[in-house]
């Protein structure tokens, strides 16, 4: 996964660690029994096309979940990473729905050179 490989000078930079799909067909069951419940757990309206959840850390180590409406972009990133390929997941500002503090799931990775993940 890229995003963590390069030094970023911007203090507001998000170091992308992983991503998750939140769609009617695929969602983390720990968030709810169905898609609407999973969306409600994150304070999101159920959007027919679904969302991509980009999990990362800022330069202080704080955990952030960036919710995007470009599901295809996130799906391509996940598929690339699953094949061992690099993919720079950088959603444009127009696709960002919101940024939520913390991560909705336990993630066992951290960005190198950044303080330990914390909320």
Tag the structure with descriptive keywords:
single chain; 119 residues; alpha+beta; four-stranded antiparallel sheet; globular; disordered N terminus
What does it look like?
This protein has one domain. The chain has 119 residues and is α+β, with helices and mostly antiparallel strands. The model is unreliable at 1-9 (pLDDT under 50). The chain has a 4-stranded antiparallel β-sheet with strand order 1-2-3-4. It has helices at residues 35-41, 71-82; strands at residues 15-22, 51-57, 63-68, 96-101.
The number of domains: 1
Structural class: alpha+beta
How much beta, percentage-wise?
15-25%
Largest sheet: 4 strands, antiparallel
Average pLDDT rating: 88
Major β-sheet strand ordering? 1-2-3-4
Dominant shape: globular
Distance between the termini: 22 Å
The total count of strands amounts to 4
Helix amount: 10-25%
Report the radius of gyration as a whole number of Å. Answer: 14 Å
As residue ranges, the low-confidence spans are 1-9
């Amino acid at each position: 996964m890229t995003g963590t490989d390069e030094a970023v000078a911007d203090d507001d930079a998000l170091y992308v660690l992983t991503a998750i799909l939140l769609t009617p067909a695929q969602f983390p069951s720990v968030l709810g029994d169905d898609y609407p419940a999973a969306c409600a757990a994150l304070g999101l309206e159920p959007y027919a096309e679904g969302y991509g959840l980009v999990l990362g850390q800022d330069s202080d180590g704080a955990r952030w979940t960036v919710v995007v409406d470009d599901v295809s972009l996130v799906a391509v990133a996940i598929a690339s990473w699953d094949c061992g390929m690099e993919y720079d997941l950088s959603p444009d500002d127009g696709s960002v729905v919101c940024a939520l503090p913390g991560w909705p799931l336990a993630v066992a990775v951290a960005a190198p050179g950044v303080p330990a993940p914390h909320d």
